[in-house]
Design brief:
Length: 393
């Protein structure tokens, strides 16, 4: 009998102990399949809408859940990574699991994991808790964002009747493939026989290839476009969010019938922290966006120049001595007034400031536009430091 945890912090730190350097664990479904069996296969009781793709997965999943919730359904929502709390990865009707409930689930799963020959990965552990939580709370539908890829992703223990596929870009090519066709084939590993596929893929060549992959599965494919929402104001800012919204609406209306009133109410209820989120604090404006690679950063720059065409900003980035941060600084140079580099670890890199120091600096400024980007962890830390609540509706 293993010792039980008594606090949420202990349970959270136990989960964090499963984080291992990338590439040290074999990419396989064996571990999570074994864990599901030991838990009684909770995934088999779920009706799942799977969301995969290169960009916009979290936002698309969030919007699908928002639409279905307006229908009166009990909707499980899994997105990743989390912004401020690990509990955000498992929401029911857009409310994260309570800390004490999360503690209970960790205490239940801990002795079961102790029986396994090989420990699951951090992501596999959290996926397992999520699936158990959704199953035991009898959600009507679970909207589940996949991790990296599809075929060997931990969420692929679920059999989804609908697969939602966002656009495809060159991301994680080390594990997904060197061409867009290889990437889309890997993500299509989530599809089953007769799966309904709703896709935001815009490249004609990839659309043709997707139809080819779907044919032996006897799967239907529909492609979304922005005309589906041409008369609708999307509350989530950023040009990419219109495409995500169109895709989400097509998926939701293929799952169930939605009235115009329900669609309007869903859009009115949407707020997704950390995705081109704008907060006005005193005379300052704080913009927070989860862009974390060069392609997303260029999209963000374009949106910022549209929204604030003449203004320069104080850019707040994670203080890392790596090529990514240097690239981000270069991309954002046209809108940069000043750069603040924030160190998130105790081992300070030279010239980096702490989160507390960054917050203190922000509070001394007036009439300033701050852009916090490049790292979900940084955004979460800044949001917490500014005492901004994490709410999804």
């Amino acid at each position: 009998m293993t010792d039980v945890f008594h606090t949420f912090e202990e349970a959270k730190n136990y989960c964090f102990s499963f984080i291992s350097p990338e590439g040290t664990k074999e990419r396989t479904l064996k571990r999570v399949t074994t864990l599901m069996q030991l838990l009684g296969n909770p995934e088999k009781s779920l009706h799942v809408i799977h969301v995969t793709g290169s960009y916009g997965k979290s936002s698309t999943a969030y919007m699908i859940a928002s639409f279905l919730e307006q229908k009166g359904l009990t909707v499980g929502l899994h997105t990743k990574p989390h912004l401020q709390s690990i509990t955000e990865r498992m929401c029911i009707n857009r409310v994260p699991i309570a800390d004490d409930k999360f503690l209970d689930y960790v205490n239940r799963i801990k002795p079961i994991i102790a029986m396994m020959k090989e420990r699951p990965t951090y992501f596999e552990l959290l996926v397992s808790i999520m699936l158990l939580y959704f199953s035991e709370n009898h959600v009507d539908v679970a909207v589940i964002e996949a991790g990296r890829g599809g075929r060997l992703d931990a969420t692929n223990v679920c059999s989804a009747a609908m697969l939602v596929l966002t656009n495809i870009y060159f991301v994680h090519t080390d594990i997904l493939g060197q061409t867009k066709k290889e990437i889309i084939k890997e993500k299509m590993g989530l599809a089953r026989m007769h799966t309904k596929i709703i896709s935001g893929v815009t490249q004609k060549q990839l659309q043709t290839y997707l139809l080819l992959l779907a044919k032996p599965l006897q799967a239907t494919v529909q492609f979304s476009n922005d005309s589906l929402i041409k008369h609708i104001s999307v509350p989530l800012k950023g040009n990419a969010q219109r495409g995500n919204a169109a895709l989400a609406l097509l998926a939701a209306t293929n799952y169930t019938v939605l009235s115009e009133k329900q669609i309007t109410a869903a859009f009115a209820s949407m707020q997704f922290p950390g995705r081109f989120e704008i907060q006005h604090i005193g005379t300052n404006t704080v913009i927070m966006d989860s862009a974390h690679n060069s392609e997303k950063m260029r999209f963000l720059l374009h949106d910022l120049q549209n929204e604030y065409p003449t203004q320069k900003m104080t850019i707040i980035l994670r203080n890392e001595n790596d090529a990514d941060m240097k690239t981000f600084e270069k991309i954002l140079r046209p809108i940069t007034k000043h750069i603040l580099r924030v160190t998130l670890t105790d081992n300070k890199i030279k010239q980096g400031v702490s989160v507390a120091e960054a917050i203190g600096y922000m509070k001394t400024q007036t009439d300033t536009i701050f852009l916090v980007t490049g790292s979900m962890q940084l955004i979460g830390s800044i949001r917490a430091g500014l005492s901004l609540p994490y709410t999804l509706k």
